[in-house]
Amino acid sequence: MIDTGMGLAAVTVLDGDRCASIEVHLRFLSPATLGLVEAHSTVVRRGRRVVHVESRVHDDAGTLVATGTGTFAVVSA
Question: d(Cα 24, Cα 2) in Å, to the nearest integer?
Fold first, then answer.
């Protein structure tokens, strides 16, 4: 979920190029409860060849259950 969310966030700054995960670091902070779980991903920096992204996952109660950071390679279309 986090990798996919960060990849989708990275694509928003790529102007038609694609990306591939180079590195993903996950931190699981607490168990997710039953119900919806939402991930919000943000581009931290877009370079020429890599995009840095971070993500936060909350459960229905608003509890932070996981965080992640990722580095994505820019692949020309």
Answer: 9
Distance from C-alpha of 64 to C-alpha of 77, rounded to nearest angstrom: 36
| C-alpha closest to that of 46 among 18, 76, 21, 71 | 71
Q: Which CATH architecture has domain 2-75?
A: Roll (3.10)
Q: DSSP label at 34?
A: S
Q: Are 25 and 68 in contact (CB under 8 A)?
A: yes
Spatial contact of 3 and 21, defined as CB atoms under 8 Å apart: yes
Q: Which pTM was predicted?
A: 0.89
At 18, list the tokens.
């694609």
Check residue 33 and give its pLDDT.
Answer: 77
- Which alpha helices (H) appear in the chain, and where do they start and end? 2-11
CA 74 to chain centroid, in Å, comes to: 15
